[in-house]
UniProtKB/TrEMBL annotation:
Residues 1-88 form the Chorismate mutase domain. SUPFAM superfamilies: ACT-like (SSF55021), Chorismate mutase II (SSF48600), Periplasmic binding protein-like II (SSF53850). It comes from Rheinheimera mesophila. Keywords: Amino-acid biosynthesis, Aromatic amino acid biosynthesis, Cytoplasm, Isomerase, Lyase, Multifunctional enzyme, Phenylalanine biosynthesis. This is Bifunctional chorismate mutase/prephenate dehydratase. Pfam families: CM_2, PDT.
Length: 386
């Protein structure tokens, strides 16, 4: 067979694979209905483990490496779980409807733009994108009814928590209704033909600069230009059409602005992941079949052992904590407000009792939201055992 004929066969096979993946997704959504009717949790990791072992065995018989099969099906299983969760939540709280207005930082191509696309493609027929220049503008868009939802970055595995967002949550009336994690790969992007030795200016968002600090410290005679979002950085480079001016951001975003990749893997950490939260004016109920998170803030006061006493309440009720973040209280020097993420449904008896006790022993408690957890950890199987 000649090369063109082989490529035609590959294209035909890829077309068949896409159709099969679409069919599998529809079957997974049907499974969600069956699980709800039988009052079963959305995720069944024992079933996933049995499935993976069986698929690895079949793959080996076909000459496919166990790691290859496992990696593919981890992605497929994650998609199935998230699709089922979105469907169940839509039935419980009402679907978003044919149009969904979402505010996010930057414009097309920013990291928040891609996170918005990733989250809402499972939940809305048509997405109206509302790009904003600041986190405050994003929150105001939802508070005033200009947007239905907002997507906000809250933390990153490399640069840590985004304090400005935490501070906004302290005062807003909005509720957290969702979360997602999104892998971040920072690339150097510029006009085609740019020589690295001739770069004199780098445009990037402050968080991106923090996440690539090790790379940037190795450069000399280069000016750092802070931007409102990665999309802003891309736009500046596109308009400049100057081979001494480049941006740092995502490859896909840069391509939207006609920029070429000049370098990859700039982040301080190899596995660079950002966590985003989704906020809305109205709180939601999380179905019992779905793993949930609850986020609240509390002010314990400054008496000795106050924070330990508060955290002991969670332990006594068997509630696992995912994050504890402290932020200063405006107007109260040296006093801190604590943000807490726990793996619990606000409707659970244990969570209700814990909040009642926290209200008694702390100065202030405010629930910021209860929402489906999208921490879909991969099911691990011993590939050699099969």
């Amino acid at each position: 067979m000649d090369l063109d004929h082989i490529r035609q066969q590959i294209s035909s096979t890829d077309k068949d694979l896409l159709q099969l993946l679409a069919t599998r997704r529809q079957l997974a959504l049907s499974v969600a209905d069956a699980k709800l009717a039988q009052n079963k949790p959305i995720r069944d990791q024992k079933r996933e483990e049995e499935l993976l072992v069986s698929l690895i065995e079949r793959g080996k018989a076909l000459g496919l490496d166990a790691q290859y099969v496992t990696k593919i099906y981890h992605v497929i299983i994650e998609d199935s779980v998230l699709q089922q969760q979105a469907k169940v939540q839509g039935q419980l709280n009402g679907n978003n409807g044919p149009v969904c207005r979402v505010a996010f930082l930057g414009r097309q191509g920013s990291y928040s733009y891609w996170a918005t696309q990733k989250y809402f493609t499972r939940r809305a027929e048509k997405l109206i994108e509302i790009g904003c220049d600041s986190f405050n503008e994003i929150v105001q868009a939802v508070e005033t009814g200009h947007a239905d939802y907002a997507v906000l970055p809250i933390e990153n595995t490399s640069s840590g928590s985004i304090n400005e967002v935490y501070d906004l949550l302290q005062h807003t009336r909005l509720s957290i209704v969702g979360e997602l994690t999104h892998p971040i790969e920072h690339c150097l992007l510029g006009v085609e033909g740019t020589e690295l030795s001739k770069i004199r200016q780098i445009c990037a968002h402050p968080q991106v600069i923090a996440q690539c600090s090790n790379y940037l410290q190795g450069l000399s005679n280069v000016k750092i230009e802070y931007c409102d979002a990665s999309s802003d950085a891309f736009e500046r480079v596109r308009k400049a059409q100057d081979k001494s001016v480049v941006a740092i951001g995502g490859e896909e975003g840069g391509k939207l602005y006609g920029l070429a990749v000049l370098g990859r893997g700039l982040a301080n950490q190899k596995d660079n992941v950002s966590r985003f939260i989704v906020v809305a004016r109205k709180a939601i109920n999380v179905a019992k079949a779905i793993p949930a998170k609850t986020t609240f803030i509390m002010y314990t006061g400054q008496q000795p052992g106050a924070l330990v006493d508060a955290l002991t309440v969670l332990k006594q009720h068997g509630i696992s904590m995912g994050k504890l973040e402290s932020r200063p209280i405006p107007g109260n020097p040296w006093e801190e407000m604590f943000y807490v993420d726990v793996f619990a449904n606000l409707g659970d008896y244990a969570m209700t009792r814990a909040l009642d006790e926290l209200n008694r022993i702390t100065r202030f408690v405010k629930v910021l939201g209860c929402y489906p957890s999208e921490d879909i950890s991969p099911t691990i199987v011993n590939a050699d055992a099969s």
